[in-house]
Write a structure and sequence with these properties.
mainly alpha; two-stranded antiparallel sheet
Length: 1096
C-alpha cells in the first residue's frame, strides 16, 4: 500500500476521512482494467472473452462510482490516482493511434474502438464529480494536441466504426484543456496528411461546415461546429472547447469575430429572423438543436472574453434575437438567452469592487447565546436610523451621480427583468442571478434603481380589499417567484440598502403565506419557498444599519418563519422556513428564544406534517412571543386551506393551542370563525365548522358560562343555509357539522333538555343533521364516533330509534343502509343487537355485512350489565364465525375478504376484552363445540393468501392461546376447559412453545416447523411402542401430551411422505407447491429430517 493510501485510511485525530468505503475493491478493478487495456497486443486483435471480461469490470467499477452521485466529494482524495491511471493508458493509446493512422504511411491496424470502455469509465467520473474537477487531472502537454485532435476527427468521420458518444465527449473536453496551451497555434500545427472525410449526415444545410479548411485552428473550429447540433453531452463539450479555443490571443482578431458572426447567422436562419423575416411560429427539433448549440457557445465564450470589442457589429442582431418571442415553447433556449444576456452585459461593466471587511473582533459567542438580552443589546449597539442623513441611511454615499448605464447594458437588464416573469423556473432562476451579478458591478445609486425595479414587481396587480389588506389573488405566481429569487440574490450580495429593507420585509412576509387556489389545486408553494430563501439571505447581511432594521422587525420575522415552519402544507417549505430561522439565530441572535425554539422546529421535526402541526407547534406555543402569532396564522389561513387533510390537522392543532390563550381565542378569533361557518366557499365553511367544534370542546366551560357566547356557538348549525347541505359539497359540510355536534356532546354542552327552552328542539335538529350526514356521506367511519357521543349524551327517543332501524332495512342506493348499519353500534337495545347479528350473514351487500361486523365490535366495547349475557356472547361469536365463511366474489375481486377481516377484528375485540370468555363459553349449553369451531376457523384464516387476514388471524390465535396476567410479564395457559379443548390447545401450544411462544421475535423468525419436527418420533411404530410401554394410563396420557399428542398419527417419516405427495401431485398449484418447498427447505437445512428412515 502506498504512503498516500496509508494517510487516507488513518483514523487519527486530524486526518482527512474519505468515506470511500469500496476504494480497495475499486482500485483492484482499476488495476485489472488498466492492465488489460494497456496491453498493446489487444489494441490490434483482442479476444472476445477478454473484451467481455473488461466490459464486466468497467460495469462493476462504474456501479461503485455511481453510488456516490449524491456526495461526490468523498472521491476527491482518490481522484488524482484514478484519473492518472486511466488517462495514462488512454494517452499512450492516442499517441499510438496517431502514429499508425495519420503520421505514418503504414497502418498497424490499431482498433479505433479499443478504448471505448475506458472512455465510458472516465465519463462516469465526469458524471459523478463534474467535468470541471476531473479535467484538472487530464494530461495537457503540447505533444497531446494533434493526437487527441486527430482521434476526435477520426471518430467524427464517415469511416468511424460504431463511434461512441462518450468517447467523443471525453475527447472534446480534453481538447478544451489542450486549447489553452500557451503556444501559438501555428507553431503546433504540423499538418494532417490525408485526414478522413467528416460525417456530415447530421448537418442540415450545405456550407455550414467548411471542409476545405487547412490550418489546425480552422479545422479545430469546424470540428467543433460539427458537434454543436448534437443533443446531449457532445453539445456541451463542443461549446466549452470552442469557447476556450476562441479566447486564445491568436484567435482574437480573426477567428473570434467570424465565429460570433456565424452563430448569429445560425440563430437567425433557424428562427426565420434573417433579412427581416418574421420569426417562425414552430421550430423543429433540428432548428432548436442548432439554436441551443450556438447559444451555448456564446454563453461560454462571453464568460472567458476580456472585452466586447469583437461584438461591435453583432450587438444589434444579438439584441433582436434575445428579444424575439420565437422561443416561447422552448424553456432551455430561453434559459440560454438569459444566461448569454447577463454575461454579455457583464462585459461592458468593470470588475466587482472589493467588499468591506467584516470586523469579527466584536462578535462574542457568549453574547449571542444570551438571547434573553439580545433585543436590548441590539438596540443599544446599533445606530439610530432617524438621525442619519439620506445617503447614509441608504447604506451608501453617492459617488456616481454622473454615471449612467450604457444603452447596451440597459437593454440587457430589461431583458433579464422581463425574464423574471417567465413561466419556467429555470429561466427565472437564471435571470435572478443575472440581475444580481449586474447590480453588483454597478455604482450604488444605479444598483438601487435595479433593486427598486425588482421590488416593484411584488406590487404589480396587487389590490387592497375593504379592510385595507393587500389582495394578491390577481397576481402572477411566476412574477412573485422571480422577484423574490432576485431579491434573495441581491440580498445575499449585500445590495439591499437598509431603508429598502424596511419597505421590503412586509412584502416578504406576505410571500411566506402566498397561495392562490386554482380549481381543486393551488399555486404558490414555489413562491413561499423563495420567500424563505429571501429570509435566509437576510441573515447574510453584515451591514450594521441593516441589523438595526432586523432588530426592530425581529419578532415579526421570527413569528412569520415559525408559523410557516409548523403550519405549511409542503414539507420543503417547512424545512426552508426552519433553515432561514436557524440562519438568523446563528448569525444575528435577534429572534426571541432562538435556540430553544430551533430545537423544537429543526429539519427533522418539521419534516413530518403531523408532527409539525400537532407536536412542534404546541411546544413552541409555550413561549408567549409565538403563541398569538401561531394561533392567528392557524385561524386565519390554515383552517381554511384548500386541502382536506390540512384543514383536519389544523383543527386538531387548534385544539392543542387554544387552551394556552383562551381569552385571545374567544375575543379575537372566535367571532371570525363563527362568521365563516356560513361562507359560500366550501373549504372555508368546512374548516370553520370543524375548528368551532374543537374550540367548543376545549374551551367549553368558559363559553358555557357566557350566555351570549354559548348561544352564538349553539346556533351555528341553524345559521348554515339550507342549500349548502343539499347541493355540491354537502357531504363535507354535514361531516363537519357531525364533528361539531360530537365535540359539543363530549364537552357536556346542554343540548339534551337540561337547560329547558329550545334545547329539545335543538336535540331533534342535531339528530336530523346526523340522519342527513349518514344518508349523504359515503364514508361513515368518521361520523359514527360523533353519533355515539351524541347518543351517550342526549339519548334517542323511540321515534328516533325507529328511524335509525328503519334506514337499515331500506334498500335505496345502498350507501345510506350501510352507514346506518355502522351507526347501529351506538345503540344498546336488545333488538339492535339481534339485528346486527343477522346482518353479518344476511346483509344484502358485502358492505352491509362488513359494517354489521364492525358495529358489533363497537357494541362489544360498550357492553352493559343488561347486554353482556352468555346468550349474547354466544350469538355474537356464532354470527362472526359464520362471517368467516363469507367468500363472496364480484367484479371487484374477493370482496368477502372485507367481511372476514372485520369478523377477525371483532373476535379479537371480543376475546381480548374478557380473559374468561373461552372458559365460560365451553361451560355453556353447547359445551366445547363452539370453542373448537372458533379455533378451527381461526386456524383456517391463518392460511389465507392475503397478508392482512393472516396477520389478524395470528393475533386472534395468540389471544385465544394465551391470556396476559395483570403485570403483563408472563403468560398463563387457560386450563379450566373440557379435555377436548385442552388437547386442541395443547397441540397448538406445542407448535409454538419450542420457539418461546408467539411474540414479536417469533414473528420474525423461521423454523417453527423444524422445531416441531424435532419432537416427533422417527416412525409411527416407534410412537405407538413408546405409548404402549407406559405402565399406567395416566403416564401414557402424559407421554402422549409431551410428544405433542401424536396418537400415532404423525412422525418424521409421515412428514416426508406428505411433503413428497404434495410435491408430486400438486406441481401446478403454486399455492400448494410454494409453501411445501419452503417447509422442505427449512427441514432439510436445519437437519430436522435426520431421524427419517434411510429409504425416505
Amino acid at each position: 500500500m502506498s504512503k498516500h493510501d496509508q494517510e487516507v485510511e488513518t483514523d487519527d485525530v486530524g486526518s482527512v476521512p474519505t468515506f470511500f468505503r469500496e476504494h480497495q475493491q475499486f482500485f483492484e478493478y482499476l488495476e485489472q482494467i488498466a492492465s488489460m487495456a494497456g496491453d498493446r497486443e489487444t489494441w490490434v486483435n483482442s479476444e472476445a472473452s477478454e473484451k467481455e471480461e473488461e466490459t464486466q469490470l468497467v460495469r462493476k467499477a462504474s456501479g461503485i462510482l455511481e453510488a456516490y452521485q449524491e456526495q461526490p466529494m468523498c472521491l476527491d482524495p482518490h481522484l488524482e490516482r484514478i484519473v492518472n491511471t486511466l488517462m495514462s493508458v488512454i494517452q499512450e493509446y492516442v499517441h499510438a493511434l496517431y502514429e499508425s493512422t495519420v503520421a505514418s504511411s503504414t497502418s498497424t491496424g490499431i482498433s479505433m474502438s479499443r478504448m471505448s470502455e475506458l472512455f465510458d469509465l472516465v465519463y462516469t467520473l465526469c458524471k459523478v464529480r463534474g467535468y470541471k474537477v476531473i479535467l484538472r487531472f487530464f494530461p495537457h502537454s503540447v505533444a497531446d494536441v494533434e493526437p487527441v485532435f486527430a482521434m476526435l476527427w477520426c471518430h467524427s468521420s464517415v469511416d468511424a466504426v460504431a463511434p461512441s458518444w462518450t468517447t467523443r465527449y471525453i475527447l472534446l473536453i480534453w481538447l478544451s484543456l489542450l486549447a489553452m496551451v500557451p503556444f501559438d497555434m501555428a507553431s503546433i500545427d504540423s499538418g494532417l496528411s490525408n485526414p478522413p472525410a467528416l460525417d456530415l449526415s447530421t448537418v442540415n444545410r450545405s456550407g455550414r461546415i467548411n471542409t476545405c479548411a487547412h490550418s489546425l485552428m480552422a479545422k479545430w473550429i469546424e470540428l467543433g461546429k460539427l458537434h454543436l447540433n448534437k443533443s446531449g453531452c457532445e453539445m456541451e463539450g463542443a461549446a466549452v472547447m470552442l469557447a476556450h479555443l476562441l479566447s486564445r490571443r491568436d484567435a482574437l482578431e480573426k477567428e473570434q469575430p467570424e465565429f460570433i458572426s456565424w452563430t448569429t447567422r445560425e440563430i437567425s436562419e433557424s428562427t426565420g429572423l434573417a433579412a427581416g423575416d418574421n420569426a417562425s411560429k414552430s421550430l423543429g427539433i433540428n432548428s432548436i438543436l442548432r439554436i441551443n448549440g450556438a447559444l451555448r457557445v456564446l454563453c461560454h465564450l462571453f464568460l472567458v472574453m476580456d472585452s466586447p470589442t469583437a461584438l461591435d457589429e453583432q450587438l444589434e442582431p444579438l439584441l433582436a434575437i434575445f428579444q424575439s418571442d420565437a422561443f416561447e415553447q422552448h424553456s432551455i433556449t430561453r434559459k440560454l438567452i438569459s444566461k448569454a444576456s447577463q454575461r454579455l452585459a457583464l462585459l461592458f461593466l468593470p470588475p466587482v469592487p472589493p467588499k468591506p471587511t467584516v470586523d469579527y473582533n466584536g462578535i462574542s459567542l457568549r453574547e449571542n447565546l444570551e438571547s434573553s438580552t439580545s433585543s436590548s443589546r441590539a438596540a443599544k449597539e446599533t445606530p439610530d436610523l432617524n438621525h442619519l442623513d439620506d445617503d447614509t441611511a441608504d447604506g451608501c454615499v453617492d459617488q456616481a451621480e454622473d454615471i449612467e448605464l450604457s444603452a447596451e447594458v440597459e437593454a440587457f437588464v430589461g431583458i433579464l427583468l422581463q425574464k423574471l416573469h417567465d413561466k419556467d423556473t429555470i429561466v427565472r432562476w437564471s435571470a435572478a442571478k443575472g440581475v444580481a451579478r449586474i447590480a453588483e458591478r454597478l455604482p450604488p445609486v444605479l444598483a438601487q434603481e435595479i433593486v427598486g425595479a425588482v421590488a416593484s414587481i411584488l406590487q404589480e396587480e396587487t389590490l387592497e380589499d375593504e379592510s385595507g389588506r393587500a389582495d394578491i389573488s390577481m397576481t402572477s405566481e411566476f412574477s412573485w417567484h422571480g422577484a423574490l429569487m432576485s431579491l434573495a440574490e441581491l440580498s445575499r450580495r449585500g445590495l439591499l440598502p437598509p431603508q429598502m429593507l424596511r419597505e421590503t420585509i412586509p412584502w416578504i412576509v406576505r410571500g411566506l403565506t402566498y397561495e392562490i387556489q386554482r380549481g381543486n389545486y393551488s399555486v404558490g408553494s414555489n413562491v413561499r419557498d423563495a420567500a424563505c430563501y429571501v429570509m435566509w439571505s437576510f441573515a447574510r447581511i453584515t451591514n450594521p444599519l441593516s441589523k438595526a432594521v432586523f432588530a426592530e422587525l425581529s419578532t415579526d420575522m421570527a413569528t412569520a418563519l415559525i408559523s410557516v415552519a409548523t403550519f405549511d402544507r409542503e414539507p420543503n417549505v417547512r424545512r426552508a422556513a426552519s433553515a432561514a430561522y436557524q440562519e438568523h439565530v446563528g448569525r444575528h441572535s435577534l429572534f426571541p428564544h432562538g435556540i430553544s425554539v430551533l430545537q423544537l422546529a429543526d429539519f427533522f421535526s418539521v419534516g413530518t406534517m403531523r408532527n409539525a402541526f400537532i407536536v412542534a407547534s404546541q411546544s413552541i406555543a409555550e413561549f408567549p412571543e409565538y403563541r398569538k402569532p401561531l394561533l392567528h396564522h392557524l385561524c386565519t389561513i390554515t383552517i381554511y386551506h384548500w386541502d382536506l387533510k390540512t384543514r383536519e390537522l389544523a383543527a386538531k392543532a387548534l385544539g392543542g393551542l387554544a387552551p394556552l390563550a383562551p381569552e385571545y381565542v374567544i375575543s379575537d378569533l372566535l367571532p371570525a370563525i363563527v362568521a365563516a361557518t356560513a361562507s359560500p366557499f366550501l373549504a372555508v365553511r368546512h374548516g370553520a365548522v370543524l375548528s368551532l367544534g374543537v374550540v367548543a370542546e376545549v374551551l367549553g366551560p368558559r363559553l358555557q358560562n357566557n350566555v351570549q357566547l354559548s348561544e352564538m356557538v349553539l346556533s351555528v348549525p341553524g345559521n348554515i343555509p339550507e342549500r349548502y347541505i343539499q347541493d355540491f359539497g354537502a357531504s363535507l359540510t354535514l361531516s363537519a357539522v357531525a364533528s361539531y355536534i360530537g365535540c359539543l356532546s363530549r364537552a357536556g354542552w346542554g343540548i339534551d333538555g337540561s337547560q329547558g327552552g329550545g334545547s329539545g328542539m335543538r336535540q331533534k335538529q342535531f339528530f336530523d343533521y346526523f340522519v342527513q350526514a349518514l344518508t349523504v356521506c359515503k364514508e361513515a367511519q368518521g361520523i359514527v364516533p360523533e353519533f355515539t357521543a351524541f347518543v351517550d349524551k342526549c339519548g334517542l327517543s323511540d321515534e328516533q330509534h325507529s328511524i335509525v332501524e328503519r334506514y337499515t332495512r331500506v334498500e335505496r342506493s345502498g350507501t345510506s343502509c350501510q352507514s346506518f348499519v355502522l351507526a347501529m353500534g351506538a345503540l344498546n337495545g336488545q333488538g339492535d343487537f339481534e339485528l346486527l347479528c343477522r346482518l353479518v350473514t344476511q346483509g344484502a351487500t358485502v358492505e352491509t355485512r362488513r359494517n354489521a361486523a364492525a358495529a358489533l365490535a363497537h357494541v362489544c366495547q360498550r357492553w352493559t350489565q343488561a347486554t353482556k349475557t352468555p346468550q349474547n356472547e354466544l350469538a355474537v361469536t356464532e354470527a362472526l364465525l359464520e362471517g368467516l365463511l363469507d367468500h363472496s366474489v364480484d367484479n371487484r375481486g374477493d370482496v368477502g375478504s372485507w367481511v372476514r377481516k372485520q369478523c377477525l377484528e371483532t373476535l379479537l375485540v371480543l376475546c381480548g376484552s374478557d380473559s374468561t370468555l373461552i372458559t365460560r363459553m365451553a361451560a355453556g349449553h353447547h359445551g366445547s363445540d363452539i370453542v373448537v369451531l372458533l379455533l378451527g376457523r381461526t386456524l383456517r384464516a391463518t392460511t389465507e393468501k392475503l397478508d392482512k387476514l393472516r396477520t389478524r388471524a395470528g393475533e386472534l390465535l395468540e389471544t385465544l392461546l394465551y391470556t396476559q396476567q395483570d403485570d403483563g410479564d408472563t403468560a398463563t395457559v387457560v386450563t379450566d376447559l373440557p379435555p377436548p379443548v385442552q388437547r386442541c390447545l395443547a397441540q397448538l401450544r406445542m407448535c409454538i412453545l419450542p420457539r418461546g411462544g408467539i411474540n414479536s421475535d417469533f414473528r420474525r423468525q423461521d423454523g417453527a416447523v423444524s422445531s416441531y419436527a424435532d419432537t416427533l418420533p422417527p416412525t409411527s411404530e416407534a410412537s405407538l411402542a413408546a405409548k404402549s410401554s407406559s405402565s399406567n394410563q395416566e403416564a401414557a396420557a402424559t407421554a402422549s401430551e409431551q410428544s405433542v399428542s401424536h396418537s400415532g398419527q404423525w412422525s418424521v417419516d409421515g412428514i416426508v411422505d406428505e411433503l413428497t405427495r404434495l410435491l408430486l401431485t400438486d406441481r401446478r398449484t403454486s399455492k400448494v407447491i410454494n409453501p411445501a418447498l419452503i417447509v422442505a427447505d427449512q427441514l432439510i437445512e436445519q437437519g430436522a429430517l435426520a431421524a427419517a428412515s434411510p429409504e425416505k
